[in-house]
# Entry
Amino acid sequence: MKKLIVFTLIAVLLAGCGAAGSVKTGLGHVISIGSSKDATADAEGLAQVDTVMAAVTFDQAGKILGVKIDTAQVRVNFDQNGKITTDKNKEFETKVELGDAYGMIKQSGIGREWYEQIAELEKWMIGKTVEQVNSMKVVKKDDAHPAVPDEADLKSKVTISVQDYQAAVTEAFENAK
# Structure
């Protein structure tokens, strides 16, 4: 929740950088429970909610002037009887807040952590329209990564699947005021 407030403040600040009426700022999000798993005789179940958030500022032509993207990945374990085994008082951090502690660098194949990759994606989006962002060339790496950038200037910087980030930026454009 505190991350959403920070996103909103960033969006307002980005909007304030332009002349009145010449920029619009919007917030977008994508929520998924697709990574959740049932409990089995051998393993606890997992209720996982992934919330992608995007705060985006657009100019009069619809080009992106500023964008901030983050993901809250909340994981709650439960046993075969449905009893929650995760500490209910735990405070969850977003992927950006976790920074190096997120631990994706070993699997990235390019030696970059999640927050570094999302920063590169954000930089790539600057100056583009939502249509251009959604027209990004992508490849399916595997079932967990169905839309990895296949753009020359992103291939060596971003190995994460981008479809949810594109959707959140699209919703931010639709919500921009």
The helical segments are 2-16, 95-98, 105-108, 114-125, 130-134, 163-175. The chain has one domain: 2-29+54-71+95-175.
